[in-house]
Amino acid sequence: MTGCRGRVERAERALGLLLKASGGAAGHLYLLREDGSLELCAPQGGEEPSREQLEELQEAIHQLEESASADESASAASPASVG
User: Which residues are paired to 31 by β-bridges?
Assistant: First the structure.
């Protein structure tokens, strides 16, 4: 990320690296805000996802967050093993 000026350039560079590594031709990089909303920060080629696709993505993120929270709660409730 050397040479990037600001978050927009960093996001564009990160998306470019992800596309190169995955062999993708186009993609969109979003930031997940503290309020749970998504912010498009680096589009590269292709059409922007539809509203329905974004809603599905936000629901998937919500489910992952709930799952991670449940896992953390279960880990905290389990006594540590002594070996």
Answer: 39
Residues linked to residue 81 through DSSP beta bridges, in sequence order: none
CA 67 vs CA 39, 53, 62, 74: distances in Å: 23, 21, 9, 11
pLDDT one-digit tens code per residue, 10-41: 899 999 999 999 999 999 999 888 888 888 89
AA identity, residue 63: Q
Question: Which pair of tokens denotes residue 31?
Answer: 């930031």
**Which tokens go with 40?**
């498009």
CB 41 within 8 A of CB 7: yes
Instruction: Classify residue 43 as exposed, middle or buried by CB count within 10 Å of its CB (0-12, 13-18, 19+).
Output: middle
Token pair belonging to 53: 């696709």
